[in-house]
Write a structure and sequence with these properties.
Layout (H helix, E strand, L loop, with lengths): L3 H8 L7 H7 L11 E4 L9 H16 L3 E4 L13 H11 L6 E2 L18 H13 L3 E4 L3 H13 L18 H9 L5 E4 L8 E6 L3 E6 L6 E3 L7 H11 L4 E5 L6 H11 L5 E5 L3 E4 L2 E4 L10 H7 L3 H12 L3 H8 L23 H14 L2 H15 L1 H9 L1 H8 L18 H5 L4 H9 L10 H14 L6 H14 L2 E2 L2 H6 L6 E2 H13 L7 H8 L1 H12 L2
Parallel strand pairs: 1-2, 2-3, 9-10, 13-14
Antiparallel strand pairs: 4-5, 5-8, 6-7, 11-12
The chain binds one RNA strand of 75 nucleotides through strand 7, helix 8, strand 12, helix 12 and helix 13.
Amino acid sequence: MPTNKDLAELLFPEVKLTIEDLEAKYPLRNLPEGAEVTRFAPSPTGFLHTGSLFTSMISYYVAKHSKGVYFFRLEDTDTKRTIVGSEVDLLNQLSIFGINADEGYSLDGDRGIYGPYKQSERREIYKIVIKELISRGRAYPDFCTPEDLEKIRASQEANKVLPGYYGIYARDRNLSVEERITKINAGVPYVIRFKSNGNHERKTSFDDAIRGTIELQDNDTDVVILKSDGLPTYHFAHVVDDHFMRTTLISRGEEWIPSTPIHLDMYSALGWKAPRYAHIPSIMKLDYGNKRKLSKRKDPEAAVSYFLKEGYPTNAIKVYLMSIANSNFEEWTIQNNSYDLDAFPFSIERMSLDGALFDQDKLNYFSKEILAKMPLEEEFVLVKAWAKEYNEEFFSYIVKDEEYFKKILNIEKDRPNPRKDYAKYSDIYPLIKYFYKDKWDEIFSRGLSFKETLSREDIVSLLKDIKENMLFGSDESSWWNGFKEIAARDGFAISNKEYKLNPGAFKGNISDASEILRVVVTGANQSPNLHEILEILGKEEVIRRIDTVISC
RNA sequence: GGCCCCAUGGUCAAUCGGUUAAGACGGAACCCUCUCAAGGUUCAAUGACAGGUUCGACUCCUGUUGGGGUCGCCA
């Protein structure tokens, strides 16, 4: 009578090692008390998702603050969905955000002794565990075709019972070893399923690091652990990898809560201690009045690349995400006058339990704060790098005269309450184009629009006076006083009070006079501090612009 | 549909049985002001519902409702 051991040997004759060997190969980590081993384990199926960045940040900071280890594992077991090369984008984007792993899969190969860190290279390990599971009767080959499974499902639906491969519906779970061997020798295709001893009527519970005790129905499904392509499923790979990589805390999306009993079932079948789980709430979005998970397909902001392209400082994005993760973070930033995430005592217990709606306004707010307070040189480097990648024209103007661009960037920056015009790098260029001669010419050729109450003659005569008499190279208050004199001479009221008292006596208010200059110089009726703009442009260019307007 | 998770202003939320129910974003108003961006001051806006437990409930329990998730040889 052949035994399960014979079956295992038939299936995996090449496998000689045992689980014990693996235990020895991957020793327990020698870490201080309380240190957490966490990981980020994405599939190479596209660019980094905003929710993934969120989860990876949490894992990263938990490990960092507990003096533990944060590692990166590539879960490339779904060959159909894999996008070749996307792990490069994933890793690059993570590194742009400074979420660098202590060990794991990287572009320069594996770092660390718990590898390989790429699941497709861990086939041997999975086989060792599966072979042992089969000899112990806790896993078995299942010969159902997709059509067979469909039939089972259809009958379950017809009978209104729970769909799935369990109990009496697990067609092949009670096949005799002989029958299995016969089929295998006949070349019938198969998958390997885990044989669950669970009882659906009973409950299992576990202690979630964020949510506390969660009670679920016990798993009784014989899940597939090895697919017909020889690669493991997530359920199995997770259990094996996180056991042998000695992970202590699994942080993953809350969509995994319902399948946790499967994982617990396997841990217990293998006699392993399960790690703790932290199920992270999803980031949501409001869609026609309904909350739903950010979707990569529908929402541009679901991909981290969107924010990079828009030119948000990476720190702003992290700060926003941290404000969702720990709501006391915002108060902390105010109290400490700092956006230094490394210094913030992040706590996983403090995480809120429901999914936050993605709030672009709040992101913009943080981003403006961060950009406004960023030192000029630092901002310059970042803007330049962004422009190089995403806005060629902008970049060409920056490099033409870097010092000139720095002056523009520095407008009203070096003061206690700096300007907050820009939430992202892409906001900059449209607002500063007029500083460049040929761009101003373009603006001018499209026509300037002055206030309707002012006549062409009034405008021209004021401009002529400005051209002749306005101060350059002086401090702001002297310039302003001089400007007021000019305006007064040309029939403008130099104070609001004066104007309101007798509007008929004036061509306009001082604000109208300065608006004329502003429109001429910038092409717009709104701009930052005029004095700074005039000084940056220089006398020659300002007069050129005035002349162009006068003579048109 | 079964099972699970969640529930304080428009958004993010504090409170861990006793508060006039914080704070931030966003909104509104006013002040400042050569426009704008800021800044300052002020305002509006929250415990889903119904039962319990308790001297006392936003807080604990039960149910309802609502929202989300999950039920694959995808992760």
